[in-house]
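for the writeup, i need someone to sanity check this before i put it in the appendix. the sequnce is what the collaborator sent (i think, or maybe the updated version? ugh). structure was predicted straight from it, no edits. if anything looks off just tell me and ill rerun, i have time this weekend
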Amino acid sequence: MHGLSYVDISNNHLEGPLPNISAFREAPLERLKGNKGLCGKVGALLPPCNAHGSKNNHKVIFSVLAVFVLLSALFSIFFVIVQRKKNHQDTKQNNMHGEISFSVLNFDGKSMYDEIIRATEDFDSTYCIGKGGHGSVYRVNLSSGDVVAVKKLHLQWDGETEFQKEFLNEVRALSEIRHRNIVKLYGFCAHKRHSFLVYEYLERGSLAAMLSKDEEAKELGWSKRVNIVKGLAHALSYMHHDCLPPIVHRDISSKNLLLDSEYEAYVSDFGTAKFLNPDSTNWTAAVGTYGYMAPELAYTMEVNENCDVYSFGVVTLEIIMGKHPGDLFSSFSSVSSSSSSSSFALPTHQIPIVDVLDQRISPHTHQVASEVVSLLKIAFSCLNSSPKSRPTMKQVSHFLSTRMLHLSKPVHMMTCGELLGLDPLAT
């Protein structure tokens, strides 16, 4: 090959290094063209051959590519793990904190939770303003200047239970309720350490507390008491007839009726409220406060609006008498379910109405007397032992708003028996 003096390998699609001999070194480019894969120190335009370097370059490229793919895979796995953990934490926090919502005051849930804990010194008894069957109520002064009532529940929040799910669903629904005689729910926390409800703060506290103190009870004149009964009736009518689905409170009592500075009534404590399903029978365990629960709950687990109607009757009597009616309303209940007034005890039948009224209040005017007697008549009908014979709260609310009894004789001459067994909506 060293004696070769002339070559022409054009257009043969050759590749690889050219021999380093004079015939190739001196060959013009025209004789070498058409062979894109040629290399070597032959001709000015051919690239030099570096087989070892090319191999190293390929190794570097493959190594970098492998590292990139590996890092991408690791990053993807890490991202998936972090995302799943975040979702789990979000779900856990939602379950633990109940998706705290302070929408009315536009507060951030987490910061509000921390502030409530600080403001009450982790719910120290010093800040407690009342206790009930379901929890203790605390007065909380917020840094914004607002005052709220926080009800810390007694229940333990351990794990997911059907009760917890229903509770959270009902609290969320109640946060959308707006009625002038229903306490505003600002938010709630469902946590295994602390479970509490945050309500608007009402200055005068519960009706039960006011009636238990002579000086405060005297401030509740007859006009104010009539207005309190009307407010309670309007709230229950709204819950039973204007909400979809209807809401049964199940624990109407004087402890759960709060008063503001103007003695306006507000229904509170919806921890045991039940949303009625119109497409099924509403069976549930009996709840409520002893002395206010409808008698049929002793033999049935079906819940409906009639249970609240009965409790309304008890509270109305309590407002009029200034104390819980006790055994008195049991006589009224047995009589109101009978078509004849002769079926109940004569002493109860002959009790003068004035003896039933709270003696701590100043004498009433004729107009107020008419309203009070109307309340008594409504209360007796609500205490009917037959649930189906009780009026609806819509009927009661309408009656109290538009009609009052016309007294045919002075109230001091009337007895309780004259109001029993009568249709309260017939006059």
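Residues 88-104, 335-346 have pLDDT under 50 and may be disordered. The first helix runs from residue 22 to 25.
thx in advance!!
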